[in-house]
């Protein structure tokens, strides 16, 4: 009887051990799932952090590229502006006056002395001619330059071709009179407005005194001009903005006084 019970007990399955194994397996499965979830969360966080820095890097590179493009555009624009200004500077007219022209044609005055014509020499040293040029000049014995009065008097239309010159106001005197003025007593001054080939308006003021050594006024051949270098006055030798902050308004005001007839002739010449 006891042996049968022992056999029965021996033959009964070990449910406790099985249950323990099941519990262990369940616990192990839960741990694995937790570990997997933790790893997935960690990987997700790491991926998000990497994506965050990748976004920063992409944004930085985009900004750098945009900055480079802007810099290139600015530099290209600066180059274009510089090239355009260089083209204008190298091809425009440049008008100025720094000298006198003395010449005689053999005429004598009532005293029997040779009569000389004296005038300021106005030059265009640029590569193109002037357009719409107006000028007003005067020459006489020394005194304070009066540009206010000069600007209010009539201006005459003129044209100077490239690398050419013309004379301004003319004064006539004999050699004896010139001798009395040779130490700087002869003064020329003038105001000029003109447009260059690009249509830009310019204003020029000049003022200089003649200073020269002894000259044989009766021995110089007729028609042979003498070029006398002038000494600049202390003021009123300028171009454009050197002539003051209001130079554009002054130049425009003078240019508006251009005689209508000269405009008609200029337009007719341009149409031919």
What does this protein look like?
Helix content is 44%, strand content 29%. A hairpin with a 5-residue loop joins strand 1 and strand 2 (114-124). Strands 1, 2, 3, 4, 5, 6, 7, 8, 9 and 10 form a ten-stranded antiparallel beta sheet that branches. The longest helix has 77 residues, at 15-91. The termini are far apart. With 272 residues, the protein is an alpha+beta fold. It has two domains: 16-91; 92-271, no CATH class. It has six helices and ten strands, in the order H-H-E-E-E-H-E-E-E-H-E-E-E-E-H-H. It has helices spanning 2-11, 15-91, 147-152, 175-181, 247-255, 260-271, and strands spanning 95-108, 114-124, 131-141, 156-158, 164-167, 171-174, 183-195, 201-211, 226-232, 238-239.
Topology:
Elements: H1 2-11, H2 15-91, E1 95-108, E2 114-124, E3 131-141, H3 147-152, E4 156-158, E5 164-167, E6 171-174, H4 175-181, E7 183-195, E8 201-211, E9 226-232, E10 238-239, H5 247-255, H6 260-271
Antiparallel strand pairs: 1-2, 1-9, 2-5, 2-6, 3-4, 3-7, 7-8, 8-9, 8-10
Notable characteristics:
29% strand, elongated
Provide a short characterization of the protein structure.
With 272 residues, the chain is α+β, with helices and mostly antiparallel strands. The protein has helices at residues 2-11, 15-91, 147-152, 175-181, 247-255, 260-271; strands at residues 95-108, 114-124, 131-141, 156-158, 164-167, 171-174, 183-195, 201-211, 226-232, 238-239.
